[in-house]
Amino acid sequence: MQSSKFWTRLKKHQQYLYISILLIAVFFIGSSLITPKITSVTEDLIQDIIQGNLKSKENIVAFEFNQLNGGLKKAQKIIQNSENNTFGFLREKLLFTADLVIEHHSIHNSFVSLTLENSVDETYFSNKKDAGYAEEIQILLKDIRFVNRDVLIDTIISKNEKVINRKIYAKKLPDDTVIYFGYDVDLIAFWTYFSETYKGDGGYTVVTNKDGVCVLHPDTKYIGKKIDMYFDTISIETILKSSLKINGYYVPENVNSLKDKATSEFLGLEVLRYYDTIKTGDTPLIVIVSFPIDIHLKETTKNIQRYFSWISFLAFSTFMLLLLASRLQMKKEYVENLKVLEEKEHLINVNEKYQKENAVLQLNQLKKKINPHFLFNSLNSLHVLIDLNPVLSQQFVLKLADVYRYLLDERDGNLISLKNELTFLEQYVFLQEIRFNKSLKVSIINNCDDKVLLRKIPFLSLETLVENAIKHNEITKQKPLIIDVIINSDFITVKNNFTPRKHKAKDSHHIGLNYLGNTYQYYQISTFKTEVINGEFVCVLPYISSK
């Protein structure tokens, strides 16, 4: 009975059995056809990996050698801008740079020399104990001949079992004063640092200058020597010409760098060498990265072929289970994510609605607050002005009417163009400056073109900040209040001298700043801020794009 049911179910689902058998047959046939191609594909893949490794090593070399050249570049800028500085200031900056340079682990000596009419006026050495170095530099400086106004020396010197990369920059000023700045890089010490810092596998790195003199090599006996064996089949000229000078950097013409097979003098193995060029300062460097072929190609290919069959079989075995499980999981997650998204969207809409309603409510509170107080103070000022200056009092009345027309004007939303807000601010400031006389000074500084005037800001934002400054600061003839409104391309800066009143106003509830904060929060702009900096209250008002 049970065997009968088994064969019945098997007959019912036999199509799935046939499909499974067919898939298994296809898998093994496909595997046998694909396996011969794995070697070529793997080699191409490893070539790509090597290319990425090469670029990584080039970036490391460029970074480290630019660090070594950093002090010289900084000194060049200081000397080239010397016309704008006093002699004493220039001297101090160069001495500071010289002291800073020797903080580098591979730089042991630095110097600064200032001469006047070919006679040494002053020479400073960072390593004051090395008399031989000082004497050598003094002789060298006397031998420098100026063809142009400045001279750049970047040379390699081998002495006393050391290899030194000497860098010197000299410039003759219009008054015939000559300034020298230089330092020595210990290339052996630099290699020690480089090898300890970058211990990754994937080939070894050799660096030479444009003349083929080695400046970086895992075997230090080659450092400082010309290594012609690296350029037997690919010449230095070919390597340098294979790069284009773009924006100050050397970029290869082709995607792939120059490469060649050779026997490594360092490893004693067949290696694949890649040649490329980088630029540090004004000098190109040749970077040569050697990858052992047996390790990086043959052995890797065999390992991939060995594991391919196992990986493929396991992948096929688990495919059906994973497919079933993933479909169930995806369905469950889809339903859950749909609910979360609906709830999130609902919360966002509720939050935006609350923020907008809150901003509009605070704007209405702000307008109600401005009307009685401002009107009362303005009428008092007008009362005094009528007898003193009738003509000015007429202008005062017109400006006051324009201000209240602007305040009472109905508009959609709470955004206004910068142009309209500035026009209103000028009218408002006119009234306030008459009220406070010379104790209040408001300046509007526009650093932009007319296009910026069409951008949007919160309604009454500039007036709010000016009124806030008037309300919370002392305003006297001895301590006048100075307010600057600076128009920039991306934001407006409003700042005033910060002299807070000893007794705060009783009706001070920060409605204005809260209104601005809520408005920017509604538009999801986080760059609005207020802070006190160096005795000034500063507010940054970003522009707003309407939703």
Task: Give the uncertain stretches in residue-range form.
Answer: 246-250
Distance between the termini: 74 Å
| CATH secondary-structure class of the largest domain | Alpha Beta
What strand order characterises the main sheet? 2-1-5-4-3
Rough shape? flat
- Derived from helix and strand composition plus strand pairing, the structural class reads alpha+beta
CATH architecture of the largest domain: 2-Layer Sandwich
The helix/strand order is: HHHEEHEEEHEEHEEEEEHHEHEEHEEHEE
Tally of separate domains? 2
Return Rg in Å: 38 Å
Strand content: 15-25%
Instruction: Indicate the CATH topology of the largest domain.
Output: Beta-Lactamase
Mean pLDDT value: 78
Biggest sheet layout: 5 strands, antiparallel
Number of helices: 11
Percent helix, as a range, is: 40-55%
CATH homology-level superfamily of the largest domain:
PAS domain
User: What is the number of E strands?
Assistant: 19
